[in-house]
Amino acid sequence: MARPPGPSPRPRAAAARARCAETERRLEQSAAACATQEALADRARAHDAQCRQALERELAEWAAQLGPELRPDTAEAALLALDGREAAADELRGRLDRSVTYIEETARTKEESERLANEAELEAARLEASLHERREQLDEKRQRLSAVTEGQPADQLIRKAERELAELRTRTAERSRRHEDAQRELQQAAEQRTGAAEAERAAEERRREAGAEWTAALERSPFESADEVNALRPMLDRQGAIADLVAKHREEERQLAAQASLLREQLGGRTLTEEEWEASAAELSARRASGELCLQAAAKAERDLESLRSKQERWLALEAKRSAMERLTNRLKSLQTVFRGNAFVEYVAEEQLVQVCRAASERLGFLTKRRYALEVDSGGGFVIRDDAAGGLRRPVSTLSGGETFLASLALALALSGQIQLRGKYPLQFFFLDEGFGTLDPELLDTVITALEKLHHETLAVGVISHVPELRARLPRRLIVTPSEPFGRGSAVELETM
């Protein structure tokens, strides 16, 4: 084991450095006093000598405490080296402690492994003996099984036994369920018997109470005996009908009384003879017969009205269907007229031309800053609408060379867009050949900007031109060098920005 380190010399070195600094400060004070006060030179020299002696004593004490090999000017470096050695010693002590711990753990692990190996060997021997014993038992059981099964396959006997066991379990479960049902029915019967006994006792109690009430009611009634009441008992079933007859008789009596009172008021004290009464009755009968005939006629008229209404609705529905069929027939005739010959094809071509013209007019307006627009005249040709001149329409032949190129470019781009929309396979490349040399710089910049936007949106645009401005604006260029007479052939070079 390493020897523990002694007390650190750092505080002593710091104190010594402090004392050295104090001594030097005093020397500087003495030198300053000697320079300014020459008269005190002796005293200063004496003081300087004292200071030197003190310094020598301090150095002697330093050497006595720390050794002559350690100088004050090398104390800091020695102190740093000592700190490094102490750190290395601490690290070595830590490693040594960890090594000792690891060695002890390794030894314990080794002992544990040896113990486990011995136990595993013992367990293996025990298992080997147990396996031998189990094999012997298995052979014995196989012999017993062969004797029991009389040579038949055990799995068939097991399946047969399992089927029989399943049947027995099913029967047992059925018997248990029936037994439980019987127990529940028995319990319910017992409960019903108890309830019936209770009901019987309650009924007997109510019978006695009813008998007492019957005797008291009979005494209070006008009947002399129960036989009279029993004789009237069959009429109880007709009690409701009898009550209805009584109520109906009373109602008829009230109505007759009211009618008699009304007749008395109408007659005003007059009297009718028998002949007048019979004549009035005959007239009433005739009026009632006439009223019945009127009611029958009104009912027949209502039935005829309903029939007419249903027929009118049917007629309106058929008329609406006929009108719809007539309109459909007219449209079909119109379509037949349209599809006759090339009229329909010409119509579709005209509509397609209008669509292309609109798209080209929009692009031309962008290229010319909304000065020009394209339109289709009645003959299917193109005309220019000069919006800068108040919408004046003039032939395309009046355009300059650059304006004609812009119009052609707009039409080509619009037509390519229509092909892109209508075609089965998309158009992915578009070539423009020359025509840029007739444009001024501002218009050329506008055209190039439009081509760049078109390139970024849908398809790639290729330009064939000798204009230098185009070469500066295009990101990728194919430079074609023509062939030399009696020399090499033409060359193609790719340039990218």
Quick take:
About 75% of the residues lie in helices and about 5% in strands. It contains eleven helices and seven strands.
Topology:
Elements (H helix, E strand, L loop, with lengths): L9 H27 L4 H26 L8 H75 L4 H67 L5 H6 L7 H29 L6 H66 L3 H25 L4 E5 L5 E5 L5 E4 L5 H22 L6 E5 L7 H17 L2 E5 L3 H6 L2 E6 L9 E6 L1
Parallel strand pairs: 4-5
Antiparallel strand pairs: 1-2, 2-3, 6-7
Could you please describe the fold and organization of this structure?
Helix 8 (343-367) packs across helix 9. The protein has helices at residues 10-36, 41-66, 75-149, 154-220, 226-231, 239-267, 274-339, 343-367, 401-422, 441-457, 468-473; strands spanning 372-376, 382-386, 392-395, 429-433, 460-464, 476-481, 491-496. The chain has 497 residues and is mainly α. Among the domains are: 10-70; 152-205; 307-340; 343-462, Rossmann fold. The longest helix has 75 residues, at 75-149. It comes from Paenibacillus artemisiicola. GO terms for molecular function: exonuclease activity. Heterodimer of SbcC and SbcD.
Mean pLDDT: 78
Q: N-to-C SSE series?
A: HHHHHHHHEEEHEHEHEE
- How far from one another are the termini? 76 Å
Q: Indicate the overall shape.
A: extended
CATH class of the domain at 343-462 equals Alpha Beta
The total beta strand count reads 7
> In percent, how helical is the residue content?
over 70%
CATH topology of the domain at 343-462: Rossmann fold
Largest sheet: spatial strand order: 1-2-3
Number of helices: 11
Poorly predicted tracts of residues = 1-9
The CATH H-level homologous superfamily of the domain at 343-462: P-loop containing nucleotide triphosphate hydrolases
In the CATH hierarchy, the architecture of the domain at 343-462 is 3-Layer(aba) Sandwich
Give a quick account of the main beta sheet: strands, pairing sense, barrel closure: 3 strands, antiparallel
